[in-house]
Amino acid sequence: MDKFLWGSATSAYQCEGGWLEGNKGLSNWDDFCHSEKNNVNPVTGDVACDHYHRYEEDIRLLSEGGQNAYRFSICWTRILANSQSTVNQEGIAYYNRILDTCEKYGVEPLVTLYHYDMPVDLFKNGGWENRETVTAFIRYAKVCFENFGGRVKYWATINEPNYETYCCYGRGNYPPNVRDLSRRWKAMYHLLLASAGAIVEYRKLNYEGTIGLVSDSYSIESLVDNEQYREAMHNADLFYNRCVNDVAVYGEFPADFIEKLALDYDLSYMKKEDEEIFKKGTVDYLGINAYDRTLVKPYTSGETCMIANNTGDGVTKNSTIIKNWFELDEDPNTQKNAWGCELYPKSVYNLLLDLKDKYPNTPIIITENGLGYYDELVDGKVNDQYRIEFLNGFIDWIRQAQKEGCDVRGYFVWSTMDLYSWINGYKKRYGLVYIDYENDNKRIPKASYYWYKKKIEEELKNDE
Ligand code: BGP
């Protein structure tokens, strides 16, 4: 890992479209979005922003915007249409074209193997709750390493084991729409085992490259400083951060985390023989998705519940109680976006110092950071000053953390262009480039795109 990566990120289901093209198989998200039942904003990723056809334009724009790196994910069902299929050469050819384009424009690819989308047959068979998915994932990862390992230097196994399982099995707003934390912990365990197993396979193949996992991580804070609040913060740190990061970096779960889980759940799916895989499959770097902090208060009463604001209507409130662990608090004095995300750039500084403390020898790449907003196209332009202010704050705080010894190797804005925001639909936009969905998905760089270009130039100059 030499040069600092300045880039932006996407994921396959959110941007590609082409859902029935190139011999692609159907995924859990194709299945979910085509059923009205739990789809709050009833739209699909069938076309998304048509990156499947317009990847060259997107990567060219990224490079012209001064960025030197592109994080994207491979769609599992383009490579293996379902758990029984043979390798789909059309899928391999498609990602080779993307990698060719990155090369053509001097852009370093950072490739995520799994970003929420899996073959629908695996999903219907229990998805990550079923250990067979671990084996299927490792097979898929190996196919990717063997086909692209010579040209990809940065790999990420899994995107957000915490947030994905939190939504799938806690909030219940992502498929399979379950609200049962015991199932969440089982799915997360298998995701982490799959990641470690894939890392072990990667190392066997001896490619020159680096491999990590992408973890949504949070600076855990509170408005009050006393013993009860500190205990709640410790519990929240285990619940959101350390259950993933300790395993990724040290190859083991925190002992007090396991003790706490064992009080309530049957953990017989945790097998003795997995311990060695976790130990061997630790990461070269930790990818961190950083959006906001987590404000915590002690658990008082009530059943576990995790209510999410997916409508951005300004009325629905996020609220979270994790029985016997903690509750989430709210600071009335901070600014928030329409979905309740605090605009608090210093959180990344607090988080990075905490990570340095806990994992002093592990380099960090900020694999996502961004602001969701109802952007408006006015006279052919998007003047997203709010996003500029937010991103600028984050970058400055990251630079400050670096000065204080944090080993940060890259920064990716979420997202390269507007795309499907999962259960929030398309109106919540994050892109540096606006997609005019009404007009043939025209690409229109926003003010933040030009600002980011200048910011990168300045930062590179400062580094000289
Ligand atoms: C991360 C995901 C991304 C992206 C982003 C914004 O958790 O890795 O895929 O979507 O968050 O979240 P959302 O689109 O739900 O607002």
Features:
single chain; 464 residues; 15 helices; 15 strands; 15% strand; globular; binds 6-O-phosphono-beta-D-galactopyranose
Q: Can you tell me about this structure?
A:
This protein is an alpha/beta fold and 464 residues long. The protein has one domain: TIM Barrel (Alpha-Beta Barrel), CATH 3.20.20. 41% of the residues lie in helices and 15% in strands. The protein is built from 15 helices and 15 strands. An 8-stranded parallel β-barrel has the order 1-2-3-4-5-7-12-13, surrounded by 6 helices. Strands 6-8-11-10-9 form a 5-stranded mixed beta sheet. Strands 14-15 form a two-stranded antiparallel sheet. The longest helix is centred in the middle third of the chain and has 24 residues, at 181-204. It is globular and about 55 Å long. The protein starts with a strand and ends with a helix. The mean pLDDT is 96. Bound molecules: 6-O-phosphono-beta-D-galactopyranose (BGP). The site of 6-O-phosphono-beta-D-galactopyranose has 14 residues, from loops.
Short description:
Helix content is 41%, strand content 15%. It has 464 residues and is α/β, with parallel strands linked by helices.
Q: Major sheet: size, sense and barrel closure?
A: 8 strands, parallel, barrel
Count the E strands: 15
Poorly predicted runs are none
Rounded average pLDDT: 96
Query: Counting H and I runs of at least 4 residues, what is the number of helices?
Result: 15
**CATH architecture heading:** Alpha-Beta Barrel
* The top level CATH class name: Alpha Beta
Number of domains: 1
Net shape: globular
